Amino acid sequence: MQLTNRAKKIDKSEMTLAERMYLPAIAGGMAITLKHFFKKKPTINYPEQKRYLGPVFRGHHILKKDEAGRERCTACGLCAVACPAEAISMVAAERKAGEENLYREEKYAAVYEINMLRCIFCGFCEEACPKQAIYLRHDQFVPVFMSRDEVIYGKDRLVEDMSSRYLREGWK
Amino acid sequence: MDIFWIKAIIILVIFGLSLFVAMYSTWAERKVAGYMQDRPGPNRAGWGGLLQPLADAGKMFFKEDFIPAQANKWLFIAGPCLAMLTALLSSAVIPFGDTLRIDGQEIQVQGIEVNIGILWVFGIVSLGVYGVMVGGWASNNKFSLLGAIRAASQNISYELALGLSLIAVIMMTGSLSVRDIVNSQHGGGWNILFQPLGFVIFLTCAFAECNRTPFDLPECEAELIGGYHTEYSSMKLGFYLFAEYVNMFVSSCVVSALYFGGFNYPFMDKVAEALGNDATGHNIATAIGFFAFFAKALFFVFFFMWVRWTLPRFRYDQLMNLGWKSLIPLSILNIIVTGIGLMFNLRWFSWVAVGIIVAVVAIQAATKPKAARGILEAAPVR
Ligand code: SF4
Ligand code: SF4
């Protein structure tokens, strides 16, 4: 009975002497390996050579600022709610007079932390955010951490640097 | 300088060279494997991974050295030493080059020139199986013992065919000395031209003697865990593996000396003439010959690797069948045909054997019923 259309008819008849001598088949096989010997290698030498991960890659989180350099996050907590891993926690604060150039909305996140041990890089936080404040970078991994005090990423590591703004491929 | 010291230096150089080549074979093996599998191979330690052998040695030395409680301790240690010793001893009689002229003395670029050179190689090589056997037995492990027994029986069966295929060469040269065999191929008359069948048999058996794929039956993960060296760790295992590489280099040297003219290369007489007949010219000509020999030997080292990364391992009964039922009769046939040729002074005569085989193959292939052919023919798509 044929289950798939990839079935092969197998020759179970006795081998001829040429086949039993192996030598012609061996020569053929060696020609194939020699051809591969001179082929260009598709290897990417990882730490030195990195390949573009694509616009949909979800990596390091970033808290965006707007064009004027004001933090966009309004500490609504929607990202924390959306997060299936409960990795995000924040403390909200009210914007004081004179801080308008720092925060875009009247409420802002005084503390914003992501536990990178918990995060599963699902990207739900960026989908949930009504202020387009949190994104997952498509061009950067979260670096390896060696101890537990390094795994909580606070605002110091999340807020965007205005001198080198993160622009997603396709935004350009 | 005393001839004794020159000889001592030459022996040391040959010794070092075998070790060096074997060391870099371990690197080359992985490089070749990588290239044949479309990847670059080791490239982290040093440029192109060139420091890899050192890194390996470091790793091997610092690993835990373990001796099983029930093992025979001294034999357990002797096993890898024996393997290494025998591997290194056999390079002594290989003529790496012609003669060097120093202080008006002609000194052969060779460890020792004995008139039974090739017997020496065979004697030592057959001792090599003791390393495996002792190691496998002393481990006090059933799988190791089975692996060792397999190695021993494989070596014995293939040594027969190896020796028999060689006899044709010895018949044509009339000497057992490797140097004589090399010299008799002077002027382009390489033995490969007269002994094609013998060469194929010899090469196959050389693979089996070195326990290289497709004949690396003594070690087999599926049935024997690691084979004879299951219980070995650290540098003792390293010695076993390293001995395999030394063996590979030595057999490459033997193959190129016996069948590919050794240090002879095309137009060597013209080159020697151009360089002049004084000591320097002669020495330079010898050096060129040495490099020719080396190139051939290294090609065969590559060939060993090439085959290893092409072919899968034989099954044990296939191995035995091939050895006893094909290679030994074929090598006897080769001796007979060569003998007939020598009787009528026809050096090319052993091609007749090849011709007969090719003819039989062609007839069989042509007369095989059509219906039986068509291997792996794709079934029609429905
Ligand atoms: S990517 Fe997913 S898991 Fe990570 S912080 Fe955002 S919502 Fe939570
Ligand atoms: S990042 Fe977005 S969703 Fe999360 S608290 Fe800030 S504004 Fe709300």
UniProtKB/TrEMBL annotation, chain A:
<keyword id="KW-0411">Iron-sulfur</keyword>
<feature type="binding site">
    <location>
        <position position="73"/>
    </location>
    <ligand>
        <name>[4Fe-4S] cluster 1</name>
    </ligand>
</feature>
<dbReference type="GO" id="GO:0048038">
    <property type="term" value="F:quinone binding"/>
</dbReference>
<feature type="binding site">
    <location>
        <position position="122"/>
    </location>
    <ligand>
        <name>[4Fe-4S] cluster 2</name>
    </ligand>
</feature>
<dbReference type="Pfam" id="PF12838">
    <property type="entry name" value="Fer4_7"/>
</dbReference>
<comment type="subunit">
    <text>NDH-1 is composed of 14 different subunits. Subunits NuoA, H, J, K, L, M, N constitute the membrane sector of the complex.</text>
</comment>
<feature type="binding site">
    <location>
        <position position="79"/>
    </location>
    <ligand>
        <name>[4Fe-4S] cluster 1</name>
    </ligand>
</feature>
<dbReference type="GO" id="GO:0050136">
    <property type="term" value="F:NADH dehydrogenase (quinone) (non-electrogenic) activity"/>
</dbReference>
<keyword id="KW-0408">Iron</keyword>
<keyword id="KW-0874">Quinone</keyword>
<keyword id="KW-0472">Membrane</keyword>
<feature type="domain" description="4Fe-4S ferredoxin-type">
    <location>
        <begin position="110"/>
        <end position="139"/>
    </location>
</feature>
<feature type="binding site">
    <location>
        <position position="129"/>
    </location>
    <ligand>
        <name>[4Fe-4S] cluster 1</name>
    </ligand>
</feature>
<feature type="binding site">
    <location>
        <position position="119"/>
    </location>
    <ligand>
        <name>[4Fe-4S] cluster 2</name>
    </ligand>
</feature>
<dbReference type="GO" id="GO:0005506">
    <property type="term" value="F:iron ion binding"/>
</dbReference>
<keyword id="KW-0479">Metal-binding</keyword>
<keyword id="KW-0520">NAD</keyword>
<comment type="similarity">
    <text>Belongs to the complex I 23 kDa subunit family.</text>
</comment>
<dbReference type="GO" id="GO:0009060">
    <property type="term" value="P:aerobic respiration"/>
</dbReference>
<keyword id="KW-0677">Repeat</keyword>
<keyword id="KW-1278">Translocase</keyword>
<comment type="function">
    <text>NDH-1 shuttles electrons from NADH, via FMN and iron-sulfur (Fe-S) centers, to quinones in the respiratory chain. The immediate electron acceptor for the enzyme in this species is believed to be ubiquinone. Couples the redox reaction to proton translocation (for every two electrons transferred, four hydrogen ions are translocated across the cytoplasmic membrane), and thus conserves the redox energy in a proton gradient.</text>
</comment>
TrEMBL record, chain B:
<keyword id="KW-1003">Cell membrane</keyword>
<dbReference type="GO" id="GO:0048038">
    <property type="term" value="F:quinone binding"/>
</dbReference>
<feature type="transmembrane region" description="Helical">
    <location>
        <begin position="237"/>
        <end position="260"/>
    </location>
</feature>
<keyword id="KW-0830">Ubiquinone</keyword>
<dbReference type="GO" id="GO:0003954">
    <property type="term" value="F:NADH dehydrogenase activity"/>
</dbReference>
<keyword id="KW-1133">Transmembrane helix</keyword>
<feature type="transmembrane region" description="Helical">
    <location>
        <begin position="6"/>
        <end position="27"/>
    </location>
</feature>
<keyword id="KW-0874">Quinone</keyword>
<comment type="similarity">
    <text>Belongs to the complex I subunit 1 family.</text>
</comment>
<protein>
    <recommendedName>
        <fullName>NADH-quinone oxidoreductase subunit H</fullName>
        <ecNumber>7.1.1.-</ecNumber>
    </recommendedName>
</protein>
<dbReference type="InterPro" id="IPR001694">
    <property type="entry name" value="NADH_UbQ_OxRdtase_su1/FPO"/>
</dbReference>
<feature type="transmembrane region" description="Helical">
    <location>
        <begin position="160"/>
        <end position="178"/>
    </location>
</feature>
<dbReference type="GO" id="GO:0016655">
    <property type="term" value="F:oxidoreductase activity, acting on NAD(P)H, quinone or similar compound as acceptor"/>
</dbReference>
<feature type="transmembrane region" description="Helical">
    <location>
        <begin position="190"/>
        <end position="208"/>
    </location>
</feature>
<feature type="transmembrane region" description="Helical">
    <location>
        <begin position="117"/>
        <end position="139"/>
    </location>
</feature>
<keyword id="KW-1278">Translocase</keyword>
<feature type="transmembrane region" description="Helical">
    <location>
        <begin position="319"/>
        <end position="342"/>
    </location>
</feature>
<dbReference type="InterPro" id="IPR018086">
    <property type="entry name" value="NADH_UbQ_OxRdtase_su1_CS"/>
</dbReference>
<dbReference type="GO" id="GO:0009060">
    <property type="term" value="P:aerobic respiration"/>
</dbReference>
<keyword id="KW-0812">Transmembrane</keyword>
<keyword id="KW-0472">Membrane</keyword>
<feature type="transmembrane region" description="Helical">
    <location>
        <begin position="284"/>
        <end position="307"/>
    </location>
</feature>
